[in-house]
Design a protein that fits this description.
Imelysin-like, Imelysin-like domain-containing protein, mainly alpha, about 55% helix, globular, single chain, Imelysin_sf, signal, about 80 residues
Amino acid sequence: NPTQENLDSAKKAWLQARESYGSTEIFRLANGPIDSEDGWIAETYGALEGQINAWPLDDRVLKKNFDYSLVCVLFCLK
C-alpha cells in the first residue's frame, strides 16, 4: 500500500541492503559478475558495478527511467 509508513520502511530496508552490498566491494576488479564488461547486461546497461555505484546519482536520468530504478522510486519522487 502506498503509505508514508511503507515508503519509510522501504527506504530503511534499501539503505540496510546497500550497506550489506558494501561488504562485497572486496570482490571488485575480479572481472566477475559485478564488474565484468562482457555479456548482455554490460552491453545493454553498462557495467553493473558502475550502475550500482553511480553516486552522486543524476536524478534527472532516474526520473526519466524511474520504472527501472528502485532508488528513484524510494528517494527521488515526491
